[in-house]
Amino acid sequence: MYQSIIIGAGVSGSAIARSLARYQGRICVVEAMEDVCCSTSKANSAIVHAGFDAKEGSLMAKLNVQGSEQMEQLSKDLDFHYHRNGSLVACMDEADLPNLMALRQRGITNGVKGLEILTREQALALEPNLSDAVVAALSAPTGAIVCPFGMNLAFAEHAHLNGVDFRFNTKVMGFTQTQEGWIVHTNQGDLETQTVVNAAGVYADDLHYMVSKTPLHITPRRGEYLLLDKSVGNHVSHTVFQLPSKLGKGVLVTPTVHGNLLVGPTAEDIADKEGTNTSGVGLAHLVTKGGVSVKNLPLRQVITSFAGLRAHEDTHEFSIGELADAKGFFDCAGIESPGLSAAPAIGDYVAKLVAQAYDLVEKQDYIPTRKAPVEPATMTMEQRQALIAAQPAYGQIVCRCELISEGEIRAAIAAPLGARNVDGVKRRVRAGSGRCQGGFCAPRVMELIAQELGIPMEAVTKNGGNSRYIVGYNKDAFEGENHETH
Questions:
Q1: What are the C-alpha distances in Å from 419 to residues 40, 65, 66, 429?
Q2: Which backbone phi and psi does 268 adopt, to 5 degrees?
Q3: Which end of the chain is more exposed for a tag (fewer CB within 10 A), N or C?
Q4: Sequence-ordered list of residues with C-beta below 8 angstroms from that of 147, at least 6 positions apart, any chain
Q5: Cα 298 to the chain's mean position, in Å?
């Protein structure tokens, strides 16, 4: 019997798992997909919000600021990419200056440090490519950028290192409350636990209503993005927001920790909880609105587009806590932006709620740090040469755009929570993330997955389920026809 079962291996669920792993008792994460970071957590703006936007006094504001303050040290302890580049909120109309001042005051009330109103000249000195229409900007030096895949994986691997079980391809079908706690019914069989933590993203309300009558409504809010090539990644150095106005919040322009430029997102409420397709209308909106705050956007350098879903709760607030009519069942729902920023604090907050309610005792042997796999790109030439001499696979480049080696890919697959498909490799080591988007390296990545997992090539998928690349062999088909003919 588990002490806690966490539903969802996104960034919130994985953060909760690593925080709960500080306590004695068996912990399990169940995930419907075949890997961590497969839904909302893999498709977002990849930024750490400073915390000036969330409503004063809200749980969202509190956890955003706490998470932001934890992030830099956590990135060192758990070894994931993070860069404090600062953010700017551009104001393009003198009439909106009171709103800019109000946003600064909200941030100060929330506890954000270092907020400053910049003049037009000061803003342009920091970001020469700001729109010519800019009249002022709010500077938030604690804003940052992060690798959401690396962060999510770091949380999950840290939890696993401290004894947390992960069950993938495990879809929750229902619950039965017992004297001891809960039976979680899944497509892989029943699991018994004292407590349940519902961190199921856009599906959190579906699971909530399996056990409770208290109101909770989640709307999938689609956000579309454009990702630009590394050759233009320095077009801005800060994350540039547009000041919300009567025309909406606009879109942001930001560098990424890997050197690309990102433009987005749109914001469209939809009914489909799997609706992560991009649209002509949405991408056209980004092209039109992306240049409002940043001029001369090099949109000819777009290398891909993508979309993600945010779990929007009707009151735009995190819904976290034990349900009054379902003892031992904890919701962690409505975790939309700034959920990525707040994730470390969300993990600690939920773990503390569970620990206090059930008198959990802290471990004496908790492992406080996690080391990421070898990353040759961060090494000196001498270190890299020594690595290749010891392990020649690290000298065999598979992904030419990102210079990712066979050794890195094999290690990503062989890890304890290793990649099981092409997108899983991409999220871990960036093979296929460059300008050609896997056009060159995907077949070799597939071969390596098949070899490491001991499966046929036709069983290799893009992102699990039925997303197979290979459906048959032309040669076999022709041989079959010839055999029948003769």
A1: 18, 32, 31, 10
A2: -135, 120
A3: C
A4: 46, 80, 81, 82, 256, 257, 258
A5: 25
Q: Residue with structure tokens 């495990």?
A: 170
Distance between CA 307 and CA 177 in Å, rounded?
37
Rounded to 5 degrees, φ, ψ at 468 are -75, 145
- Residue position matching structure tokens 């758990």: 78
* Alpha carbon distance 332, 156 (integer Å): 17
- Catalytic residues, by residue number, are 49
Structure confidence by residue, pLDDT tens digits, 245-266: 655 567 999 999 999 999 999 9
C-alpha 107/C-alpha 256 separation (Å) is 24
Contact 136, 123 (CB under 8 A): yes
**What is the CB-side half-sphere exposure of residue 380 using CA atoms within 13 A?**
3
| Structure-derived torsion over alpha carbons of residues 408, 410, 416, 417, reported in degrees to the nearest 10 | 80
SS3 25: coil
> Cα–Cα distance between 305 and 97 in angstroms, integer?
33
Residues composing the chain:
486
Reported pTM: 0.95
In 10 A of CB 54, how many CB atoms?
A: 26
* pLDDT tens-digit series, residues 15-63: 999 999 999 999 999 999 999 999 999 999 999 999 999 999 999 999 9
Give the DSSP letter of residue 230.
Answer: G
CB of 197 within 8 A of CB of 7? yes
Which pLDDT score, from 0 to 100, does residue 246 have? 53
Whether omega for the bond prior to residue 98 falls within 30 degrees of 0, making it cis, is: no
Confidence of residue 486 (pLDDT cuts 50, 70, 90): very low
Task: Please determine, for residue 457, whether its predicted confidence score (pLDDT) is greater than 70.
Answer: yes
Structure token pair of residue 302: 């777009």
Instruction: Please work out, in degrees rounded to the nearest 5, the angle formed at the alpha carbon of residue 327 by the alpha carbons of 323 and 333.
Output: 30
Q: How far is Cα 46 from Cα 465, in angstroms, rounded to an integer? A: 26
Residue with tokens 């979309």: 307
